[in-house]
């Protein structure tokens, strides 16, 4: 990234900014202070900005009311027609939006009050049209006592009232009839027993009950069809006005962006100065663009100061495999410029951890189907309307999500074959997977485990097509192996995180963070080696056996911690406590084993329940077992899926990235000035001058 300063004549500034929008490489940075004017525009510039922003806001609100997503590109109307295009769509759309809002309000009122109003209308007959009588409706909760209300009415209006109630759902609605002059007295009686008058919202407030009941009955019968008609009208308006409206909206955004650029630039009476950042590989495009303006533009480059400049933007650049995982990185802040980009680490380990946790061929095939479905929508240029979440996923994001889901599915299927799981133990019941004691002993005997040949699984447990190589469900003898296997990832990633901390400290010439990384990295290494050398605390006498490389690494790590701690003790006096916390960070990777084992046990129970129905009932049991097992698997997967995704993400965000310092600092996203509306270069008025740029961009 290079910092660039661009100076131009004020009269050419609009053409220069438009050209910069066209090339789309300059990330602007506001200029503050100095001899030139900065900040808000004034005079004619301010008025032009207000006019464009007003029209843009009108276009934006109309698009929002249409509920339309971006249609196919349409030609941009002439500038003189923009206001007509916007107003031509805004007037009918706002009228229709008002009708839809009023109808939705009526539907909500009918849903909440319809039954109560109809009951009240039946009770009062025609009394609601009487000139002498007043009606005060009320609502009784199941815990309210009608006798208390009657006592209050007798005290306030002795012999001058009538009361009726009717059950509606769990509550009771009622009405008090009294003389109009004594309506307030009846309301007072209601308030004495903590009841209030039932008031209808909106246009129904002053209606007679009979009229309100008739109106709500009409809404109940015809409201949904009216709403469908209005939605159809909205779709037609979207098809009619959407393409031109989007084209004008984008062009207005470009014009407003020109005003924004002027506002963040330094302005004099005859000049304008911009500053920003350009990636090194795009300097040629910037140079070619500014060359067109000759002496009317001067540009100067400066190397960025990545150690002290917090405003340098960041653009993630990754290969074709890693790039789709930037959608996962969107859940985190961007790395600081010049530091470590963890996207490729997440691309490698996140789907791997997910696959180890789920580790089921059947579930993996379901994820593969879902990933292919997402990719299919993306290929058809279709988005995913998640209106119940108030969200819309565009096709480009669906493409990345589908890719990520497919990678997760591939690891899930692979680990499903290793663990011998197909919808839990269904594969075992079908004879697809089986346990081979001799093979397992050959594979894992070096860990000290031995498959118990006297296991009470029966001969069927040892017969099938594909042997299980990682039997995590065999908790009687394999749990420790699976647990240590998961912890190995913690050992790798936590030590790796502190190694990155050391590297970044050396690169930025920051001795405090360098020695912090040496101290905690060495201390964590010492704790890990101590655990292995002492066999998890069973033999502390082995810690003095200097013939063991584990013991040598342990003491080297502890010495590194002591030396590092002494160097930074005044900055981090509580570092020994942080060391214990980092030891806990390694242990956090046991989640991979624990969450995965719980998932496997639940899947096993689902399949075993369904298989038991087949064994007990026969053919009918097959049908019942399939339905019951499928429902249980769906329920368990839906209940646990979020946790299976969150746990690997948490291990990366916290346990791995905290030591690197990733979560302490961030940089803004590279967001270059770009043109949204299509614009041929002929529309950009360029001042033809023969001379070269006075400050060439190299």
UniProtKB/TrEMBL annotation:
<dbReference type="InterPro" id="IPR040574">
    <property type="entry name" value="V_ATPase_I_N"/>
</dbReference>
<dbReference type="Pfam" id="PF18670">
    <property type="entry name" value="V_ATPase_I_N"/>
</dbReference>
<feature type="transmembrane region" description="Helical">
    <location>
        <begin position="586"/>
        <end position="605"/>
    </location>
</feature>
<dbReference type="InterPro" id="IPR002490">
    <property type="entry name" value="V-ATPase_116kDa_su"/>
</dbReference>
<dbReference type="Pfam" id="PF01496">
    <property type="entry name" value="V_ATPase_I"/>
</dbReference>
<feature type="domain" description="V-type ATP synthase subunit I N-terminal">
    <location>
        <begin position="112"/>
        <end position="200"/>
    </location>
</feature>
<feature type="transmembrane region" description="Helical">
    <location>
        <begin position="401"/>
        <end position="418"/>
    </location>
</feature>
<feature type="region of interest" description="Disordered">
    <location>
        <begin position="673"/>
        <end position="698"/>
    </location>
</feature>
<keyword id="KW-0812">Transmembrane</keyword>
<keyword id="KW-1133">Transmembrane helix</keyword>
<keyword id="KW-0472">Membrane</keyword>
<keyword id="KW-0406">Ion transport</keyword>
<feature type="transmembrane region" description="Helical">
    <location>
        <begin position="477"/>
        <end position="500"/>
    </location>
</feature>
<feature type="transmembrane region" description="Helical">
    <location>
        <begin position="512"/>
        <end position="534"/>
    </location>
</feature>
<protein>
    <recommendedName>
        <fullName>V-type ATP synthase subunit I N-terminal domain-containing protein</fullName>
    </recommendedName>
</protein>
<feature type="transmembrane region" description="Helical">
    <location>
        <begin position="546"/>
        <end position="566"/>
    </location>
</feature>
<keyword id="KW-0813">Transport</keyword>
<feature type="compositionally biased region" description="Low complexity">
    <location>
        <begin position="677"/>
        <end position="698"/>
    </location>
</feature>
<feature type="transmembrane region" description="Helical">
    <location>
        <begin position="617"/>
        <end position="643"/>
    </location>
</feature>
<feature type="transmembrane region" description="Helical">
    <location>
        <begin position="344"/>
        <end position="370"/>
    </location>
</feature>
<comment type="similarity">
    <text>Belongs to the V-ATPase 116 kDa subunit family.</text>
</comment>
């Amino acid at each position: 990234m290079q910092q660039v300063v661009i100076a131009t004549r004020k009269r050419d500034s609009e053409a220069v900014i438009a050209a910069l929008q066209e090339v789309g490489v300059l990330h602007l940075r506001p200029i503050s202070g100095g001899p030139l004017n900065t900040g808000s525009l004034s005079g004619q510039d301010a008025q032009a900005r207000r006019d464009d922003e007003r029209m843009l806001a009108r276009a934006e609100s109309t698009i929002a009311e249409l509920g339309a997503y971006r249609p196919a590109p349409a030609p941009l109307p002439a500038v003189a027609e923009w206001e007509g295009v916007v107003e031509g769509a805004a007037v009918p759309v706002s009228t229709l939006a008002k009708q839809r809002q009023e109808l939705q309000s009526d539907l909500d009122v009918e849903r909440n009050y319809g039954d109560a109003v109809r009951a009240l209308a039946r009770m009062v007959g025609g009394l609601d049209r009487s000139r002498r009588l007043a009606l005060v409706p009320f609502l009784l909760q199941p815990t309210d006592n009608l006798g208390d209300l009657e006592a209050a009415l007798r005290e306030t209006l002795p012999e001058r009232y009538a009361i009726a109630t009717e059950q509606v759902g769990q509550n009771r609605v009622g009405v008090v009839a009294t003389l109009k002059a004594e309506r307030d007295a009846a309301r007072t009686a209601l308030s004495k027993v903590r009841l209030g008058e039932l008031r209808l919202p909106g246009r129904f407030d002053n209606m007679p009950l009979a009229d309100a009941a008739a109106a709500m009955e009409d809404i109940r019968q015809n409201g949904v069809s009216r709403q469908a008609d209005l939605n159809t009208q909205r779709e037609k308006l979207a098809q009619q006005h959407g393409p031109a409206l989007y084209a004008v909206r984008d062009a207005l955004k470009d014009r407003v962006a020109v005003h924004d650029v002027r506002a963040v630039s330094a302005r004099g009476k005859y000049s304008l100065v911009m500053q920003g950042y350009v990636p090194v590989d795009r300097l040629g495009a910037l140079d070619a663009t500014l060359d067109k303006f000759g002496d009317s533009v001067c540009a100067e480059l400066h190397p960025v100061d990545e150690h002290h400049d917090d405003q340098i933007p960041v653009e993630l650049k990754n290969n074709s495999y890693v790039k789709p995982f930037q959608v996962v990185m969107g859940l985190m802040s961007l790395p600081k410029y010049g530091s470590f980009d963890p996207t490729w680490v997440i691309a490698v380990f996140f789907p791997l951890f997910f696959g180890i946790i789920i580790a089921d061929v059947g579930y993996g095939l379901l994820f593969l189907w879902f990933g292919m479905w997402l990719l299919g929508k993306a290929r058809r240029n279709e988005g995913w309307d998640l209106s119940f979440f108030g969200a819309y996923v565009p096709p480009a994001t669906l493409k990345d999500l589908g890719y990520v889901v497919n990678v997760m599915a591939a690891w899930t299927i692979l680990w499903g074959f290793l663990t011998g799981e197909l919808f839990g133990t269904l594969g075992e019941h079908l004879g697809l997977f089986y346990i081979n004691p001799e093979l397992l002993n050959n594979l894992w005997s070096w860990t000290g485990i031995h498959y118990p040949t006297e296991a009470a699984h029966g001969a069927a447990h040892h017969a099938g097509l594909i042997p299980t190589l990682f039997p995590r469900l065999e908790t009687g003898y394999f749990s420790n192996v699976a647990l240590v296997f998961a912890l190995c990832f913690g050992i790798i990633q936590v030590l790796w995180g502190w190694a990155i901390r050391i590297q970044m400290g050396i690169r930025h010439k920051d001795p405090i963070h360098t020695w912090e990384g040496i101290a905690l990295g060495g201390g964590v290494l010492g704790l890990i080696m101590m655990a292995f050398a002492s066999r998890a605390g069973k033999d502390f006498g082995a810690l003095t056996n200097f013939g063991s490389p584990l013991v040598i690494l342990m003491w080297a790590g502890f010495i590194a911690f002591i030396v590092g701690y002494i160097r930074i003790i005044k900055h981090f006096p509580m570092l020994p406590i942080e060391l214990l916390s980092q030891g806990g960070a390694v242990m956090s990777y046991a989640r991979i084993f624990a969450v995965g084992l719980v998932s496997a046990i639940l899947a096993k129970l689902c399949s075993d329940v369904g298989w038991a129905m087949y064994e007990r009932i026969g053919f009918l049991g097959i049908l019942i077992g399939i339905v019951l097992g499928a429902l249980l698997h769906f329920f368990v997967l839906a209940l646990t899926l979020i946790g299976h995704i969150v746990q690997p993400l948490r291990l990366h965000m916290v346990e791995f990235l905290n030591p690197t310092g990733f979560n302490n600092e961030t940089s803004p996203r590279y967001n270059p000035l770009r043109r949204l509306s299509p614009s041929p270069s002929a529309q950009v008025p360029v001042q033809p001058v023969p001379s070269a740029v006075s400050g060439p961009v190299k």
